[in-house]
Structures are given as structure tokens and as C-alpha cells.
Amino acid sequence: MLSSLSSSKISPALIRNSHIAISKQELERLNQMSYSKKYPRRVGNQIGKQLEEMILAGCEYYRNREIAEINRIPEHFRVTETYRDGSFKGRFTGLAQPDFSGTTKGGQSIVFEAKATLSDRIKNSVISKEQKRKLNYHQVMGAKTGVCVRVRNTYGFIPWTVWCDMKNLYGRLYMTEEDVKEFEVNTPGFVDFLNPVKRG
């Protein structure tokens, strides 16, 4: 019973109405558990959105200069109920696709996923099986494919061949921020994912 109560903010009134004997210290501990689980998720979602916004700014930069036409692929989503206050309920209706797709000047397709983390590493498993299947297919067809990442404060575009061979290349199924620096891209107010940082 207590575990189910910890998933949302717990008030003393709720405790009284549930006829559970609980101390103020235990109540505070349960509320803190709820906060500690939700806060990292919210921060993770926020940096993911920020990365996508910076990529979209990069897409606009390329579009304005006729370098590439790249767009965010919309999620398969259907609204099931609407409410008077403007809110709604909905559900995803299809398997996740890679996040971005388009064409660079000269005719080459580009398809990639975007992932961000404040951790010091990005795991191979953050890409779903369906996304991997799609990226593999586009890779075989000759598209430029990869994963645009933010790991802590480093932004990079990891080629799909490197992402898929992570275990052989690094001896593990994750890349550290230091590993990502090999594929770092400039961020002059947006993610310049088509232009890796020139080193040496």
C-alpha cells in the first residue's frame, strides 16, 4: 500500500483517510522518494527537447543557405479524447521512427536519431529495435545515417557504422563523453551536425 502512495505527492489528509499510521518523518521520506524519481526524468526530458530544438535551428540554417532540407519526423499519434479546458488524451499508434530525415545538397539522403544525457556516457540501448532496423535500411540504401548526441556538454554526430560497432570499437555498449569528442560538432547557437570539429 505504501509503495503505491509514493508515486505521487502525499498529503496528511490522504494518510488520515487511508487509516494508515505513519510518522511525519516517514511521510517526508516517501515524498522525497517521489521527488528523487521524477526530477531526473524531467531534467532528462528537458535536455532532450533542448537538443531537438538546437537541431531544428541547424536544419533552418541549412535550409536558408540551400545546404540541406531536413525535417523532424512526426510521431504516429492519435487523439482519443478532448476536454473543455483544451487538454486531451491520446496514444501512439505506430513504432518509433528515427527523429530526423531529409536530403543534403547533391542528393544524398540523411536519416538520424537524436539522444541526450547529462550522464558521462550514452548507452547503445537508447535506440529502439525499430529505429535500428530503419537506420540499418537507410544505411544500406546509401543514406548518411547516425545518432546526433549530447553527452554532458559535448555535442557530436556518431556515424551509424560506429554506433553499431560500439562493442568492437570500445569494448563496451556505451560511449563516454571523451569518446564522443572524436565526433564532436560545432554549436554556434545551433547543432551544426553536418560539420564535425576539425582537429589538429
Helix content: 25-40%
Q: What's the main sheet like?
A: 5 strands, mixed
Q: How much strand content do the residues show?
A: 25-35%
Number of strands: 9
Tally of helical runs = 7
Q: Low-confidence spans: pLDDT under 50, at least 5 residues?
A: 1-21
The SSE order reads HHHEEEEEEHEEHHEH
Chain-averaged pLDDT: 82
Biggest β-sheet: strands ordered side by side in the sheet: 1-4-5-7-8
Principal-axes geometry comes out as: globular
Distance between the termini: 60 Å
Q: What does the radius of gyration come to?
A: 22 Å
**Which structural category do the helix and sheet elements fall into?**
alpha+beta
Characterization of the model:
This protein has about 200 residues and is α+β, with helices and mostly antiparallel strands. It contains 7 helices and 9 strands, in the order H-H-H-E-E-E-E-E-E-H-E-E-H-H-E-H. The strands form 3 sheets. Strands 1-4-5-7-8 form a 5-stranded mixed β-sheet. A two-stranded antiparallel ribbon has the order 2-3. The protein has a two-stranded antiparallel sheet with strand order 6-9. A hairpin with a 4-residue loop joins strand 4 (about 100-105) and strand 5 (about 110-115). The radius of gyration is 22 Å and the shape is globular. The N and C termini lie far apart (about 60 Å). Mean pLDDT is about 80; it is low at about 1-20.
Fold blueprint:
Blueprint: H1 2-5, H2 12-17, H3 24-64, E1 68-72, E2 77-82, E3 88-92, E4 100-104, E5 109-117, E6 121-123, H4 129-140, E7 144-151, E8 154-159, H5 160-164, H6 166-170, E9 174-176, H7 177-180
Parallel strand pairs: 5-7
Antiparallel strand pairs: 1-4, 2-3, 4-5, 6-9, 7-8
